[in-house]
Specification:
By secondary structure, the protein is mainly alpha-helical. The protein has four helices and no strands. The protein is elongated, with a radius of gyration of 24 Å.
């Protein structure tokens, strides 16, 4: 076992490394991973549904929301379900990021997750505009 003389610094204090001011809580790290995954999944699913909407408009002459869910092709139904799961993952990531920042003071990871969550709806709107009007 070390004595206090062995751990003492010649400049005073101990030789233990100083605690960093920035801490990462595991919840913050999880929220960053989930926010990134939701970001990618939302981007892919919105692009898929937007492309399907453009196809439906050019084939059937109707918008995607005017076609009953039971009459949609199976692939479009799967795209819509995947998009619902992606938005649910986004909502969970948003809640975890807020908890990480406010309760656990995980400022770095929580802020990154909040930034990714804040950018996701703007990406979704932009991709929807680009893909749903592509075939028109």
């Amino acid at each position: 076992m070390r004595t206090s003389a062995e751990t003492a610094s010649p400049y005073g204090g101990s030789m233990r490394p100083a605690r960093t001011a920035v801490a990462s809580h595991p919840l913050g790290v999880i929220s960053v991973i989930l926010a990134g995954s939701a970001f990618a999944l939302v981007a892919l699913s919105v692009a898929m549904v937007g492309t399907a909407a453009a196809s439906m408009r050019s084939i059937y002459g109707r918008r995607l929301v005017e076609i009953p869910f039971a009459e949609l092709p199976p692939s479009v139904s799967i795209y819509v379900v995947v998009m619902g799961i992606a938005w649910a993952a986004w909502l969970v990531a948003l809640v975890l990021a807020v908890i990480a920042v406010l309760r656990h003071r995980c400022l770095v990871c929580g802020s990154v997750a909040l930034a990714v969550c804040a950018a996701t709806p703007f990406l979704a709107v932009a991709l929807w505009q680009l893909t749903s009007t592509a075939g028109v």
